[in-house]
Write a structure and sequence with these properties.
This protein is mainly α and 325 residues long. It is 70% helix and 0% strand. The longest helix has 25 residues.
Length: 325
């Protein structure tokens, strides 16, 4: 039996996931019979992930073709929502209206035939019985970026991260399926944590970029506890020796907690069906390696964007495959 540690926020997030699986009014997409239209739709999704999701795209190559198409449609669905919110040249009201339109298109039973991503996503939702409430929860999470720029505590942050990332893990669980001996219900807590770990890695990687864009995801009460303020998010590692030490201690705490989340979530990988297990392991391992890069550069996440090089990704693949064969 796999046992995971308990945090104050776990019960709330698990309740949200369970509620999504049993919606009061289910919405089932209408089957799309035109094979050529579907082919174009899935090809469009493959183009989206190839352009915007290099690590995600690399991992999906390890999936059987039907699940590969579905995961790429999931990515494209998420990317459209992200792109709408990140269109900073547009007024907030305009972006909110566009996101509301995308919400409708992404959960409607019959998407417009000129929206290829929506069509592929509708077909994926139908084939893998993905609850539409997960889509709603994701868009609710993405929409918070339109009006919320700070988070008071880690509990507040994980609620946001559940919406924009844990929902993705839960939908992947539907697409890939569980291994014999495991159930979706049993895997849920781990899939939720894996999503949190991945999203918080994103947050730690993009501290400076987000701050320049007016957003601070790092918990305000933790910044205050280390005697840090907003300006430190633009200057971290570039101040006096004392300031650098304080920044390093703060970031070390963040990285260590993120690694702990990965450890607690890692049993999830063995719960996925063997056809998709290595794909998930690659995604998570390569993202977790970003933390190594942050450490290797003395926690400078304000003047550079931490990353894993293409060679770094490739040289890790045999070890990831071997440990999850």
């Amino acid at each position: 039996m796999v046992i995971t540690s308990r945090h104050s926020w776990e019960a709330q997030l698990l309740a949200m996931a369970r509620e999504a699986v049993h919606p009061a009014v289910p919405r089932t997409p209408v089957p799309i019979s035109d094979v050529r239209v579907l082919q174009r739709a899935y090809t469009a999704c493959a183009a989206v992930i190839a352009e915007h999701g290099k690590t995600f795209n690399l991992a999906t190559v390890l999936l059987p073709p039907p699940r590969r198409r579905a995961i790429r449609a999931l990515y494209a669905f998420c990317r459209v929502a992200d792109n709408i919110v990140d269109s900073s040249h547009e007024a907030v009201a305009v972006r909110a209206a566009r996101l509301a339109e995308w919400r409708y298109r992404s959960v409607t039973a019959s998407p417009p035939h000129d929206d290829l991503v929506a069509l592929a996503w509708a077909d994926t939702r139908l084939r893998y019985k993905i609850p539409y409430t997960y889509c709603d929860q994701l868009i609710d999470g993405v929409a918070r970026d339109l009006h919320q720029q700070t988070y008071e505590s880690f509990d507040d942050l994980v609620t946001y991260a559940y919406g924009v990332a844990s929902t993705v893990g839960l939908m992947m669980l539907r697409i890939i399926g569980t291994a014999p001996g495991f159930t979706e219900e049993g895997a849920m807590p781990y899939a939720i944590k894996m999503g949190l770990a991945l999203q918080i890695t994103n947050i730690l990687r993009d501290v400076g970029e987000d701050r320049r864009g007016g957003r601070v995801y790092l918990p305000a009460n933790e910044l205050q506890a280390w005697g840090l303020c907003d300006s430190d998010l633009l200057e971290g590692g570039a101040g006096s020796d004392f300031e650098n030490e304080r920044w390093g201690d703060f970031m070390r705490f963040q990285v260590d907690r993120n690694r702990a989340l990965y450890r607690e979530a890692w049993p999830c990988i063995q719960m996925f069906h063997r056809d998709g297990r290595c794909c998930v392991a690659v995604m998570c391992s390569l993202y977790r390696a970003i933390l190594d890069d942050i450490e290797a550069h003395d926690y400078d996440v304000t003047h550079r964007r931490a990353h894993v090089t293409n060679w770094g990704k490739l040289r890790r693949l045999p070890g990831i495959w071997w440990s999850n064969r």
